[in-house]
């Protein structure tokens, strides 16, 4: 769980099973599949992974942030995506990519947990 700053707003996000459910319910797509497309299939590549900014689907990233934010606030009621996005409209600055990077880091750390024994998702990390 972590807090992201979007303009003047603080948004708490949490990568977990509920985020997967909320994303699927709202967008009829798989969060992990969409995330892998965003990062070119490179998860867990460490802090030096280069991502081409022109390949980032900013709307898909915002959808992922919304699902993780709703997950972090569960069981409290949470706005639907359109309402949530409209509330952010004046705060969105696409030149400030820190919240996109923070969201991808939370998703990577939360969905692809590195175990202390070097095993990631049941597969040795170096294979």
Give me some keywords for this one:
about 130 residues; mainly alpha; two-stranded antiparallel ribbon; 4 strands; globular; disordered C terminus
Provide a descriptive summary of the structure in words.
The chain is mainly alpha-helical and 127 residues long. The chain is built from 5 helices and 4 strands. The protein has a two-stranded antiparallel ribbon. A two-stranded antiparallel sheet has the order 3-4. Helix 1 (17-27) crosses helix 3 (58-73) and helix 3 packs across helix 5 (98-111).
Low-confidence stretches: 121-127
Q: Kindly report how far apart the N and C termini lie.
A: 28 Å
- What portion of residues belong to β-strands? 5-15%
Helix-strand string: EEHHHHHEE
Please give the count of helices.
Answer: 5
Global geometry: globular
What structural class do helix, strand and pairing data support? Answer: mainly alpha
Average pLDDT score: 83
- The radius of gyration over CA amounts to 15 Å
**Order of strands across the biggest sheet?**
1-2
Number of strands: 4
- Please bin the fraction of helical residues: 40-55%
Main sheet summary: 2 strands, antiparallel
């Amino acid at each position: 769980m972590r807090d992201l700053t979007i303009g003047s707003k603080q948004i708490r996000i949490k990568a977990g099973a509920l985020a997967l459910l909320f994303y699927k319910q709202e967008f009829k797509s798989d969060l992990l599949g969409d995330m892998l497309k965003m990062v070119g299939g490179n998860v867990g590549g460490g802090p030096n992974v280069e991502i081409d900014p022109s390949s980032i689907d900013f709307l898909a990233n915002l959808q992922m942030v919304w699902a993780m934010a709703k997950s972090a606030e569960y069981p409290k009621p949470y706005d639907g995506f359109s309402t949530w996005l409209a509330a952010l409209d004046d705060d969105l600055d696409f030149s400030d990519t820190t919240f996109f990077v923070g969201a991808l880091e939370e998703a990577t750390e939360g969905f692809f947990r590195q175990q202390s024994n070097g095993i990631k998702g049941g597969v040795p990390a170096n294979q």
